[in-house]
Amino acid sequence: MKTAIVGTGYVGLVTGTCFAEMGLNVVCVDIDKNKIDKLKDGIIPIYEPGLEELVKKNYSDGRLSFTTDLASCINDVDIIFSAVGTPPDEDGSADLKYVLDVARTIGKNMTRYVLVVTKSTVPVGTAALVRSTIQKELDKRGLEIEFDVASNPEFLKEGNAVNDFMHPDRVVVGVESEKAKKLLSKLYKPFMINNFRIIFMDVPSAEMTKYAANAMLATRISFMNNIASLCEAVGADINMVRAGIGSDTRIGKSFLYAGCGYGGSCFPKDVKALIKTASEHHVDLEILKAVEKVNAEQKKILFRKLSDYYHGDLAGKTVGVWGLSFKPETDDMREAPSLVLIHSLLQAGCKVKAYDPIAMNEAHRILGNHEAIVFTDDMYDAVLDSDALLLVTEWKQFRLPSWSVMKKLMRTPYILDGRNIYDADELTQMGFVYECIGRAYNR
Ligand SMILES: NC(=O)C1=CN([C@@H]2O[C@H](COP(=O)(O)OP(=O)(O)OC[C@H]3O[C@@H](n4cnc5c(N)ncnc54)[C@H](O)[C@@H]3O)[C@@H](O)[C@H]2O)C=CC1
Ligand SMILES: O=C(O)[C@H]1O[C@H](OP(=O)(O)OP(=O)(O)OC[C@H]2O[C@@H](n3ccc(=O)[nH]c3=O)[C@H](O)[C@@H]2O)[C@H](O)[C@@H](O)[C@@H]1O
């Protein structure tokens, strides 16, 4: 079976590569020529553990190929996956421009049956829109050609994408015909050795499942961040509370970590898009509006704590920042809490010394050149002569620093831990002032 993946971004590249690894013939298509040229040269445009070697291996084995020309491969494949971006429009809704561009190209060029599967995160009704867009193009050409549309949303996480794709908890597939169901069952058959489940359903339910999943995960995080604030106020410890509630199998352990807010390309945009869809249908998603509001406040929490510590007098202070990407194991800076923090620090007149193991270039590109920001080559350089260290992203290399070295380097031994990774007792005993999220402390 031959498959085309349209949109060789994050999801498209992981999907195409993993399908090829499972023995399928895959052509990855993107309109970005620069990206496709780089991939052909073995240069992977994103940082994702384990992906580079799989891309190179499958490309050299001939199962994976790259092109900018969708029209040229439409009639060579049985299934086309559309994995193009669906960025937020000005009003928060998902912009379907790229999804519909792909549909138009298919309708303009197809000469035989094809199954068009949307992998991008799209609002309910998009598959129907893809169908009518393709049909319109066929009508213009005066052709009657059978085709199917389906929805197969993707649930991978950045930083663990290959593993998530190869060992998914489930694969959700929305179909409208037995033919489409058979084709997708066959496509996913090689993955069955990993014992996962395909959940077939109608198309609108599949489209909604993706948003509901991300909205539920974002809700858990904002809920825990909200409870963390209460823990601080009443003298409880959010880490203990997490262990206590997470052991209830009805609640589960995952996605209960309080911190300095969620970021990334998906939770913020998908929560917004779902609220927008709901409002278009006169449904008020009050819970999700609160989830967004709590998260926006949570992204300010490190700055607020720092400001409280220095009684609002931050001008001229030097602040070390560890971790810039929105989470570890990625160079993705989209909606990263570090950006909100750094903007506030600069506005308050601080000098920022920032370090991230992977996202430095991307952070520099986004933040630009600013005389008050230094991007350091080493994590310890970022705390030299600093008045505080703010841990924003919990990369592994930050977990066990040499505290004795840190103590010598810092001007004021003040650690503000935005991801609750350090041992408060150990740091206090060593003479640091330690603060984290959701735990009462004494200064
Ligand atoms: N990034 C992630 O971790 C996940 C993303 N998603 C969803 O998957 C979709 C794609 O996300 P990403 O991969 O992050 O996007 P991305 O922005 O990394 O990649 C999108 C790619 O599509 C290409 N493109 C745009 N129009 C095209 C066209 N007409 N023909 C061919 N290529 C075209 C762009 O050049 C770009 O390379 C979004 O809907 C997102 O919400 C779902 C699960 C995980
Ligand atoms: O639709 C998507 O694109 C993807 O969005 C998320 O994946 P991702 O954005 O890569 O990252 P997550 O691991 O979910 O983390 C998102 C944010 O939440 C934060 N987070 C996560 C977990 C937690 O307990 N607490 C917490 O603050 C992280 O620090 C990060 O900023 C979902 O987890 C994926 O299932 C989904 O496919």
UniProtKB/TrEMBL annotation:
Q: Which UniProt keywords apply?
A: NAD, Oxidoreductase
Oxidoreductase as UniProt keyword:
yes
Does the record's keyword annotation contain Membrane?
no
The record places domain UDP-glucose/GDP-mannose dehydrogenase C-terminal at 320-424
Which SUPFAM superfamilies does the record cross-reference, listed alphabetically?
A: 6-phosphogluconate dehydrogenase C-terminal domain-like, NAD(P)-binding Rossmann-fold domains, UDP-glucose/GDP-mannose dehydrogenase C-terminal domain
E.C. numbers: 1.1.1.22
**Which reactions appear under catalytic activity for this entry?**
UDP-alpha-D-glucose + 2 NAD(+) + H2O = UDP-alpha-D-glucuronate + 2 NADH + 3 H(+)
Q: In which pathway does it act?
A: Nucleotide-sugar biosynthesis; UDP-alpha-D-glucuronate biosynthesis; UDP-alpha-D-glucuronate from UDP-alpha-D-glucose: step 1/1
Which family does the record assign? Belongs to the UDP-glucose/GDP-mannose dehydrogenase family.
Tell me the protein's name: UDP-glucose 6-dehydrogenase
Organism of origin: Coprobacter tertius
